[in-house]
Design brief:
By secondary structure, the chain is mainly β. It has one domain. Helices cover about 10% and strands about 30% of the residues. It has two helices and ten strands; from the N terminus they run ββββαββββαββ. The strands form three sheets. The protein has a five-stranded antiparallel β-sheet, covered by helices on one side. A three-stranded mixed β-sheet has the order 3-4-8. Strand 9 and strand 10 form a beta hairpin. The radius of gyration is 15 Å and the shape is globular. The N and C termini lie far apart (about 35 Å).
Length: about 130
């Protein structure tokens, strides 16, 4: 059984009718709880005005950005170990490092996974960057 409190985020870009999963370098970003996702969602607006729905599960940003995220929704009960059929990624295997998912801290914060490259830039090893 997976962690029942995990959440993912669906994002809508300009012209999209269906959300895509918030990802980084091809890995779906997973949040410990829906509350953690709620705290991070405003970052997706890039400083634009955020309008939340009554349940605080969906946020819309104005003005519309043709290149950015314009709406995002929290997908509660997301279980990386038991994904529904039809998704373009596979479920994770217990007791093994995740291949298709990454925890939000490894995308939005430095948890010791950053490696300095020879040219002075940094690689996020949690995302498979070299």
């Amino acid at each position: 059984m997976g962690h029942p409190d995990y959440a993912a985020v669906g994002i809508y870009r300009s012209g999209q009718a269906r959300p895509s999963l918030l990802s980084a370098n091809g890995k779906v970003i997973v949040f410990d709880t829906p509350q953690m996702a709620r705290h991070v969602l405003p970052l997706l607006g890039g400083g634009r005005i955020a309008a939340w729905d009554a349940d605080k599960e969906t946020v819309c940003f104005t003005p519309i950005d043709p290149q950015g995220v314009n709406r995002a929704c929290i997908l509660t009960g997301y279980d990386p170990y038991h994904l529904p059929a039809g998704l373009p990624l596979r479920s994770e295997t217990r007791l093994r490092a995740w291949r298709n998912h990454v925890m939000w801290q490894h995308v939005f914060a430095d948890c010791g996974q950053m490696r300095r490259r020879v040219d002075g830039t940094f690689a996020n090893t949690a995302l498979g960057e070299n």
